[in-house]
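Appendix B. Raw example, untouched.
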Amino acid sequence: MNSQPKRILFFAEAVTLAHIARCLTLARGLHETGNYTIALAADSRYDSVLGNIPFQRLPLFTVSSDYFFSQLTKGVPLYDVKTLTAYVKEDIKRIEQFRPDFIFGDFRLSLAISSRLKKIPYATITNAYWSPYLDIKFPIPELMLTKLVGVRLAQALFNWFKPFVFVIHSLPLNRTCKKFGQPTPGYDMRKCYTFADITLYADIESLFTMQPYPENHYFIGPILWSADVSLPSWWKNIPEDKPRIFITLGSSGDTSVLPVILETLARLDVTVIAITANKQEIRHSFKNIFITSFLPVKNAVKNSDIIICNGGSPMVYQSLLENKVIIGIPGNLDQYLMMSLLIKQPGTLMLRAGKVTQKSVLQTVNKALALLKSKPRHSVVNTYDTIAIVDAIVKKTLQI
């Protein structure tokens, strides 16, 4: 190891909490090795639940989460050339400020350009269901089209137009690359989402049917994270004589369905722990339901029997590895892709966000309660030492 530790800069696209959480977890792990000088660049919108950050913290412009989810719902490209151009300029400011030897990014698509302009190796953190080397069917998410014509017809139309959709979603990044005179990823949305010097899949490879993939693509295992907040005052008063259901739709789930779920569960002989992530105000109180904005999900998952979540990879992996019954209520394509893989696992149920009613929730939860009697439910084991893998990748790349 050289006398001067190598400098690593993490860029987190703060449109969802998960993107920051994954960066922060890896950054903490590499910081604790003592081998590197670390910095995290991210918008401050989730700082209240990140806790103390023991390394340099840099600001970073990110579009609002409301804008991002509006684009998702419309089914249009998430960023335009103007936004990506602004991102590239912002990236370069932070790179010149910190002078890193290596860059990590989580859904910061502009880094494919800015890292090359500054000639710094760049690794993107993503999920394997976005890989162009994965054989997977793409389910139709909750779009305006789905609401207009129904799931079955929307899925048929989506299957037909999918190649064109992937091209349309790839255009802004390709055009921005050309604008800066940089190589393009190609006209496939999946190639845009995994375009980097190194691609890291925060997944368990056994869940995926992969084609041969390049040597610069690595599975690093799930990146688990819990909010750095105190347990609520009512935590010790939660009854232990009834099945416990933990509900979290996260920062990217369709929280408009949360009141329906709570009203349904209030009629059952269960105990419910729910977090709102400050996205939904629950005006009614229920005697069997405990509600807070955030809590450490590690504690909540471990002490619950059934997990109701948005189907996204962070909470799914947390629940999967604790062998819990999982009910996924996906809304966006990312969540549907994860659930399409997980639904093959016993002990997993799925309810479309667009199909949530008191009746459908009741039916699904009753099925989940019945599944509690069938252990073990999941056969997936996490054998990854994620920090050691990432540390080795950095050292190999920087030849240290």
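End of appendix B.
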